[in-house]
Amino acid sequence: MSLTPMASSATPTPATKIVKCPTCGGPSVYAASNRFRPFCSERCRSIDLGAWASEEFRVPEDEPDPQAQTPDDQSS
Fold this sequence. Notes:
Blueprint: E1 18-20, E2 27-29, H1 42-53
Antiparallel strand pairs: 1-2
């Protein structure tokens, strides 16, 4: 049995959350130390930004119901 003091790396630290990178699916550290979070790298972040800029991603728009009338459309 050794009587040496515990190494500093053995002290409890908060758990590091690992998430899936939205671009490549690889592991990504979700912490303030990762300036690209939730992405794993600058490359993945840039790919995602480029996809939005080129309109590959779009927020879906609900088609208006042609049968529905708004109060402004009603004629008296």
